[in-house]
Queue: 4 jobs
Job 1
Amino acid sequence: MKSRRKISVITATRAEYGLLKNLIKELNNSVLFEINIIVSGSHLSETHGFTYKEILEDGFKIEEKINLDIDGDKPIDIATYTSRAISSFSSLFENNKPDLIIILGDRYELLGVALSAMFFSVPVAHLYGGEITFGAIDDSIRHSLTKLSQIHFVANETYKKRVIQLGENPNYVFNVGGLGAEAVMSLKLFTKSEIEKKLGFKFKNKNLLVTFHPTTSINSSEIEITETLKSLSKRTDTQIIFTMPNADHGNKFIFDAIKKFSDLNKNSCFFVSLGQKMYLSCLKNVDAVIGNSSSGLLEAPSFKIATINIGERQEGRMKASSVIDCQPISDNISDSIDKIYTDQFKKNILSTVNPNFNGATSTKIVSILEKINFKELIPKTFFDLK
C-alpha cells in the first residue's frame, strides 16, 4: 500500500478554524492523507482568548504551535508578526516538509506561511481567493496568497474568474462554495435556552449581534465603532451581543469602546470569542448582525436574518438581498435597524439566497485533492489569458 500523503492544515485565527473544522474532519476520513494541524497567530494569544483550546475540545490533535507573540496592534507589530511567521515556518518546513499545506483567507500570518512554503517548494492549496474587500489590507494579502498558491478553492464563479484573471491555471481553480455556508447546514446548533444558560444572558423580543473589526486600509475604525455605539445606545429594548475584534492593527480602540459600552448598558454583553458553534447559534436567534465582519455576508444570509454592513471593509464582496449597506453615521445606522423590523423587509428576507452556498463543500475539496498529483504542482507557471 502506498504511503499516505502528508497535508498540513494551518490555522491562525478563531474565524478561519471555524470554517476549516468540517474540512479537517473530511480530510481525516480519507485513507490517502495524513493530516497535521498547525496553529499560530491569535490562537495562541491570551488577549484573544487562547482559541487553540477550541481545536483540542473538538477532539483534534495539534501537531505544532508556532507562537508569534501577538500582543500589539500597530502596523509595525503586524509587520513583525509576519516576519516571525516567515522565520518560524521556514524552520518548520526545513525539518518537517509536508506534501501540501492548506490555508484559508487573507490573514497576514498566512502571508509568512506561504512565502516560507515557496522557499521550500511546498505546494499550497488556498481557500478563498478572488474576493475583494476594499476596506482592509486583507485584499492585497489575499491576492498575494493566490499568486503564492498552486491549488485554489473559491466560493462562486465570479471569484473563480478573478483568480484565473490573476494568471492561475483554470485546471487548478475550483468553485466549491463556501465552508461557512456549509457549516450552517451541517452543525447541530445550540437552542435559545442553551445559549442563555451557557453565556449568562436572556434574549429579549429584539436581539442584535455586533461584530466589528478594524478597517486596516482606510483607517476609519474609530469613527465607525463610535457611530455604531451611539446608535445602539438608543436601543434600550434590545439585547445587544458583542464579539470582540480580530488581531488586526487598530483592534484595541474597538475592544476598549465595546467593553466600556457594555459596562454602562445593562442590555449588552461582550465575549472575546464565542467559537464557531456558539457564534452561529447566536446568529440563528438574533434579528440581525451589525458591523463589518465577513460573517454577515458569508453565513448570516443562510439564516435569513438581516445584515447591517457598516462602512467599506467588505466593499467588493458578493452580497445577498438580506444585506443592508450602511454609512458609518449614527442616524443611518438607526434607520437601517428600523428597516429590518418593517413588515415589508421581514417578508422579503424569507426569499434570501446565500450566493456562497454550493452543497457539500468539504467533500468536494477532499475528492479534488485525492485526484491531484502534488509533485506536478512545482514549479508553478503563469497562465496567460487568450
Job 2
Amino acid sequence: MFRLAVAQYAVYRPQNWDDYVSHLTDWIEKAVAQHAELVVFPEYASLILTALVNETKQIEQYQAIQSLLDRFLELNHNLAQKYQLCIISATFPVQENGKFLNRSFVFFPNGEIYFQDKLQITRFEKGVISSGETIRIFQFKNICFGVAICYDSEFPLLIRKYVENGADLIVVPSCTETWSGFHRVHLSCRARALEHQCYVAQSCIIGSADWVETIDQNVGRAGIFSPVDHYFPNDGVLGLGNLEQSQWVISDIDISLIKKVRRNGEVFNYRDWDTQHHFNKIEKNIL
C-alpha cells in the first residue's frame, strides 16, 4: 500500500525562477506532510513559466520556455530525491526533432527520470503538438502504472493496452477549459477504472492564466477512482476535490485489492473484456 496525491492545481503568475522554485517546493512539502509517496501534477501546468519569457504568441512561447526545460527537470529531480517520493510532473511542451510533444516526466526517488508523451491529440492541439508513439509502463513500490494524458483517457482500447501490459494504476494529468471538457475526462477516468478494474487518478488545473492561450481558462476537480465493486466505495470514488479549491486529493492505494476484485468481484469486467469481440452477428430492424 502507498499514498497517492493528485493536484487540483490553481495557476498563478511566477515573478521569477526562484519564485517558481519556492512555489513547487511548497506544493511538494504539503504533499509530503500528508505522507504522500507518489504525486501527480496536471497537464500543461508548466506553462505558467511562460510568464518568465517575453513572447506572447503560443508557438513562440513554447519555443522560448525550452530554455527553462533543463532547470525544470533539475528542480523536479532534486525534489524527488530530497523528499523520497515519485513525481509525475506537469506536462511540458518539449521541442524535439522540429516538433512539440506534450510530455509528462516521471521522477523517481532514486534519481531515475522517464517520460510519457501524449498519444491522442485534440483538434485544438493539432498543428502545434504532435502525437507520441510509445506507451510506457512504470513501476513504483509494488504497483505498475501508466500515464495517460487527458484526451488519452477517453479511448478504452488505448487504456486497455496499458492494463494488458501490467498497469494497475493509470494517472491522468488533465487540462480542461470547460465543464463539458472536464466531465468528458472525469467520466472517462471512472469508466476506465470500472471496465479494467484498476485505479485511475486525475489531476487537473484550475483558474486563469491570461498571458498564455493554452491555459487561459481552466476548470476541473481532481479525483482518484477505483473499481465499482467489492472492497471499494459503492460509487468508485476514493477522493474528489472541492470546487475551485487549490488542493491535493489523497488516497491510499492497495494493489492487493485489485487482485482480489479481479478474482472475487461481483462482476469480471477485466477478465471478460475479450468476450465482447465474440458478438459479430448483427441484425438491423429498421422501420
Job 3
Amino acid sequence: MPIEFQCPACQAILRVPDDAAGKQAKCPRCGQIVTVLGSQPPQPDLAIGPAVPPPPGGPGIPPGSSDFNPYAPPQTQVSYLSPVDRGVIEPQIISFGDTFNITWRLFFDNIGPYLGMGAMVFGISFLMNILSSVVNVALVAVGDEEAIALLGILMFLLLLFAIAVNLWLQGGMLRYSIELAKGMRPSFGRVFLPFNLFLGYLAVSFILGLVMFAGFVLLIIPGIILMLMFYCAPAAYLDGKAGIMEAFTVSRNITRGNRLTIFGLMLANMFLAFVAIVVTCGLAGLLTAPFFNLLIAVIYTRCAGLFASARPAMAQASTMAWVPAAPPNIQ
C-alpha cells in the first residue's frame, strides 16, 4: 500500500508508492528533499527547539570521509512527491490587496504555462473563425435552399463545438490554477479535463448561467448578488470539495463577507484587461483568460482557507528538531 508521511518542513501530507522506501524525493510544496523511511502515519510536532540539520553527505557517506562533498547532489534519484489534499474548508475573510498581489505574483512566476494556455484558447478561436468564414462564403455562393439550410445547421454545430471546447479549456485552466494556489506543482496536462469532470463542470456553469440570467432579468442588482454568491461554485466542484448542486452551497458559505471584495477584484481585472489589450494592440488578449481563471482560483482557495499560506506555515519548520540515532551500545 502507498506510504503516507508528513513533510518536516511544511507539514504537507505526502504519498509515495510502497517501493519508494529509503529513497529521496522533493516536496512539491516547499521543495524540501526528504528521505522516505517507510510506511508510517504522519507524526505531529513533538520536539520544540532550534532546527538541527541532518548530517550532510547523504546515506552511506560519513561526514569524515575523504569522498564527502557537502555540495554534492543527493546520492539517490530525487523525484517529486504526490501531495495528498486533506484540506478542510474553513471560510476566511480576504482582502483586496493581498488577493490581487498574490494572483499577480503567481501569474508571472508561472508565465510559461499560462502563455501556453492563452495560445491554445487563441488558436481554437482563430480556427473556428476561419471555419465560420468558409461556411459564410459557401452560404453566399450556394443558391440551393436545401444546401443553405444544411450549411446553416453546420454553422450552428460549429458554434456549439467552439463553445464546448472553450469551456473545456477554461475549466482546465481553473483546475490548474486551483492546484497552483494550493501550493502544488501541477503539470501542464492538468489543463485537459477528463470527460466526466468536464460534464460536471459544464452542468455547474450552465446552472450558474441560468441563475445569473434570472437575476439580471428581474433586476440588475439581484443578478450581481447571485453572481457574487455563487462565484466560487465551479472552482469548488473542480476541486472535488462538492458535487454539482453542493458546490453552490459551498460557494454561498465561503463568499459570505467577501462579496464586495470579490466584486472589486472583478472590476479591477476587467479594467486592467481592457487597458492591457488597448496598450498592446490586442496582444495581451492571450493572457486575459488565464489571469482571470487564476484570480478565481486564488479567491476560492483564500475564501475557503485552502490557500498554501493558510496551511501550516513554513516557519514552523523551526520547531522540528532532528535527533541523530544513538550509537550502538558495545559491551
Job 4
Amino acid sequence: MSKTDKRIDAYIAKAPLFAKPILTYIRSVVHEGAPECEETLKWGHPAFSQNGLLCGMLSFKEYCALHFWKGSLFIDALKGDEGAAAQLGKLTSVNDLPPKAVFLSCVKRAVELNAAGTKLPRAAAKPKAPIRLPPDLRRAIDENAKARQTYDGFSPSHRREYVEWITESKQASTRSRRIAQAVEWMAEGKPRNWKYMKTPAKGQ
C-alpha cells in the first residue's frame, strides 16, 4: 500500500493555481503505477521512492516539471509512442503530460529498474585539450639537454602542470621568471609540484 506524506499535501496547497491539477494528477498516476511507492521531499520538492528514487515533480511560478531519475535509460524508447516523452520540460497543463498509458509505463519501468538495482552510467569525463608547449618554453627547454630529457620523460599530467603554470602568467616578467625556474627544476629531474611530493624516509 502506498505511503503518502503530508508535506506533499502542503506543497500542492501552496502551489500556483494552474499547478495544482498538474501535481495532483502526477501524484495519482505515480501511485497507480507504483502502489508500493513512498512519498518524500528531496531538495525541497515532492519525490516518489521505491527501492530508490523513481521520479520527482516541481512547481515554479509559470510551469511544472516532472523528472524520472533513471529516465535516460528508457525515455528515448518512448518518444515514438504518440510523440510523448517523460522528461517533458515545462508543463503548463495536464494536457502537456503524456497519455496515461505512456505515463504509467514510465512509472512501471522506473520501478523495474530500481528493483533490478540498475545504476545510471557515469558520464564520460571530458577529454582534456592537447598539451601544447609554448614556443618560448620550448626554446628554453631545447637549450638545456637535461631539461629536455626530463620533459620528454614526463607523464602528460606533469607536462600539463608546467605548461599551465607558464601560460597562466599575466605579466611578461613573471612568465620569463617561471620559464627560467621551470628549466632549472626540469634539469634537476623535478616535476612542477615536487615540493609537495612525499620523499622516501632515510634508510628506505
